[in-house]
């Protein structure tokens, strides 16, 4: 029973190690790199590699979490990774604003921009602005859940240990629920696909 519980705990923690924010950053970096045809040309391998990477890294981190004596280094690493991702999102936004100014001011631009490139720059800016709410939501709950989970490494009273565990559980529950709501409200493709799937399920149940 103990072994099974330990396994379930290990698997569950792989989902708690949130790598959503770095995944968003990598996807936006790809959009900047493939500026000419990112929206037009499907590159399914990018999404596949991102999902495979965050799943594999999350699982390995969850195994490491239960193997090491002190998990403080893991928690600090996750904070640094997510803080870096938040900063990169802002840098990407400023970079695309600069590209937009260059593409609209042809006299000062060192090269010409195609219509597809200008569209992609505008789309990158729109996506960055749209993702700000998602990024803020993810950052806050990543920080709170990581800090409260890190209290296991300190000799605290049972009161503070239980309080930290309670805050951690609330953060994880709220994070898992609220992130999807924020994504739904601020991401039109996600919203449209969700509505399409719900309509399909409802129509299926009617027959």
TrEMBL record:
A Pfam family: Sre
Any one annotated GO CC term: membrane
InterPro entries, per the entry: 7TM_GPCR_serpentine_rcpt_Sre (IPR004151), Serpentine_rcpt_epsilon (IPR052854)
Protein's UniProt name: Sre G protein-coupled chemoreceptor
Family: Belongs to the nematode receptor-like protein sre family.
Keyword Membrane: yes
Transmembrane feature ranges: 12-34, 46-66, 72-92, 129-151, 163-186
Species of the source: Ancylostoma caninum
GO annotation, biological process: sensory perception of chemical stimulus
Keywords annotated in UniProt: Membrane, Receptor, Transmembrane, Transmembrane helix
């Amino acid at each position: 029973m103990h072994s099974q519980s330990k396994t379930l705990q290990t698997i569950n923690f792989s989902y708690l190690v949130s790598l959503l924010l770095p995944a968003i950053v990598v996807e936006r970096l790809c959009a900047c790199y493939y500026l000419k045809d990112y929206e037009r040309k499907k590159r399914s391998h990018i999404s596949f590699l991102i999902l495979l990477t965050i799943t594999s890294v999350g699982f390995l981190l969850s195994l490491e979490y239960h193997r090491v004596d002190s998990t403080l280094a893991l928690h600090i690493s996750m904070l640094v990774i997510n803080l870096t991702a938040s900063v990169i999102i802002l840098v990407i936004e400023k970079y695309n604003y600069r590209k937009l100014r260059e593409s609209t001011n042809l006299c000062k631009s060192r090269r010409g921009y195609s219509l597809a490139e200008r569209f992609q720059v505008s789309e990158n800016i729109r996506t960055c602005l749209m993702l700000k709410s998602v990024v803020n939501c993810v950052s806050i709950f990543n920080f709170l859940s990581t800090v409260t989970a890190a209290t296991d490494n300190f000799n605290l009273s049972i009161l503070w240990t239980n309080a930290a565990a309670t805050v951690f559980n609330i953060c994880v529950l709220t994070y898992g629920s609220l992130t999807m709501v924020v994504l739904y409200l601020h991401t039109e493709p996600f919203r449209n696909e969700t509505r399409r799937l719900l309509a399909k399920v409802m129509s299926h149940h009617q027959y």
